[in-house]
Specification:
Blueprint lengths: L1 H28 L6 E9 L7 E12 L4 E10 L8 E13 L4 E8 L4 E9 L2 E7 L5 E8 L5 E8 L6 E10 L2
Length: 176
């Protein structure tokens, strides 16, 4: 009887895992439009009136058979005293889909050691992820493909969750 119960448990778990992984893969395929190497320009304005422009590269690769996307973003800009552009932003993100919770998740890491965990979803404007800052503000990023096939992304900040101020924008072209 114990052997039968163990066999039943293994078969049930295996079937659930297969269903879960196929649902995950199906949801992750919706993000295939991001895969590739992208380059372009963007700006960030963390303090109103102090906008900083940069050249940006985003490299998006499917990993684990398409179960996750690995996204590396690098922003470079000219700074006083330097001849060449220097990195002003460097981030690594991992996007996955939790089939049980029916929720996309994005875990991001910055070169300065900070990290965030964000929930994400498709909204009318595109693919959006959001998180809370340690100070209690809400941040959301939305990315979409334009009619010209460009990656358009904007970042917004809210102190109250109702009114939003744009602090970031970038437009990238696919190069690979």
């Amino acid at each position: 009887m114990k052997t039968f119960a163990l066999l039943l448990l293994v078969l049930t778990t295996s079937t659930l895992a297969q269903h879960s992984s196929s649902a995950q893969l199906e949801e992750m395929k919706k993000l295939d439009f991001l895969i590739g190497e992208w380059r372009g320009e963007g700006w960030a304005e963390f303090i109103p009136g102090q906008r900083r422009t940069s050249s940006i590269t985003e490299n998006v690769q499917p990993k684990l058979g398409g179960m996750v996307l690995l996204i590396e973003g690098l922003g470079k800009a000219r700074v006083a005293g330097k001849e060449e552009e220097v990195a002003v932003h460097h981030a690594l993100g991992v996007v996955s889909y939790d089939a049980t919770a029916k929720q996309y998740r994005l875990k991001s890491y910055l070169a300065d050691g900070r990290s965030t965990e964000a929930e994400a979803e498709f909204v009318e404007e595109g693919f959006q992820w959001r998180f809370q800052t340690p100070q209690g503000a809400s941040i959301r990023y939305t990315v979409k493909l334009t009619e010209q096939g460009e990656w358009f992304e904007k970042g917004e900040l809210s102190q109250d969750g109702k009114s939003w101020r744009q602090f970031h924008e970038m437009t990238l072209q696919k190069v690979k």
